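Fold this sequence, please.
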Amino acid sequence: MRKLLCALLLCSTLGAAGASPALASHGQVTYFEAPNELLSSNAKREKTVAKLQALGVRALRVQLFWRNVAPSPNSSRRPSFDATNPANYNWGQYVPLLAEAKALHWAVLLTVTSPVPRWATAGRKDRLGLTRPAGGEFQQFMTAVGRQFNPAVSLYAIWNEPNHPRFLRPQFDARGNPASPRIYRGLFQAGYEGLKAAGIPNPKVLFGETAPGGETKINPREGLLKDVAPLVFLRGALCLDTRYRKSGTCGALPAYGYAHHAYSMRATGPFYIPPGRDNVTIGVLSRLSQALDRAASAHAIRSGMPIYLTEFGVNSKPNRFLGVPVGQQAEYDAIGERIAYQNGRVASFSQYLLKDDPLSGVGVSGGVGFQTGLEYLSGAPKPLYSGFPVPLTVSKRGRGFSLWGFVRPAGGQTTLTVEVRQGSKRFHKLKNVTTNGSGYWGLNSATRGSSWRVVWHSPAGKLYTGPPIRAY
């Protein structure tokens, strides 16, 4: 296990005591998603934005649910209206939220997704709004979206977890073969053309937004409501066979990047290695990098396509199935961020939820809720709340330790203090460390400890003290 943890953290050889390990040459945008607070009342949104600013947030992921803004969404009869005109939709809280993000110069990733109006489903029969959305209708809707929001949107993404039956159906056909990849390909192409029709000549659109696990093929008699494995989905949507050979009838998709949700799927956090080579969690992110390289070699996508980890979080207690202790949540979340940072293909990391969903309730997009928040449902902070602005990882390295961290609110080079606790003693100063120009830092140390933490004073005088972090 110790070798596995070291590999996951991309360990390097320990140098002289106090030397800084080499840092990756790139940074990564961190998208934050807090739909329950940001898409609520004006007062709650303003309070939440102020809180996110203090946490160092500078980018948002926002899911736009087609059904929620469309006219007559529950009708099987399509209303008579110009679907490309944004004035014909009820955008609600999306308008003030994106306007505020634009005023703050925050990057916005807008994921346009299901549920869809009933009149836009196959046969206009699906009340859930998930079955074979009509490509033509979606293209017109995306034109309206582009006309309404483009100045405030940095990136678009087509569909949330299209390899999951909670968001797109059918996932498998009557023979048990994947059906959703080809449906999604049509939606992506329609959405892209819709944005171009809105006057965006080269829209930046992310492909995928895939869930981390699923099946390659199923027995239909056991039920069709199962996920398609993400790399099976990727190949199907790009018209590739299992050896990544492309069908001659399919052209390359004009995707700007590949979006993925690299949840661990187990309470073992980022260390989990999923069965099946077509599943991709944070611990095996290289599977996705390799798949994208092979797809590019087949001329299905552009070469060197970046990876956007657009939804991520670590479930904590009181989730009794996937939850880890809250102190470990902060440790695991930082380790996940470090794994992403040290993968040169990754362009973004993310945090899903500010506040936990109800245990027995559902999340904003349906299904079982998440306990991945920085706060409990009550609003009380978890250790992750103080850890998110100053994430820290400590990895064992021979007789010493390698530390990595990030000062998220700094926005540039700054100096922080690393503290260590030995046994039951109080924390004391280990060393002052200066970050690189993006706020990241590294440190090798021979000093043994039971836990470490970061202390940082912002230029405005705000004190940030991270939670105790153990070595792995």
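The mean pLDDT is 93. The two ends are 10 Å apart (CA to CA).
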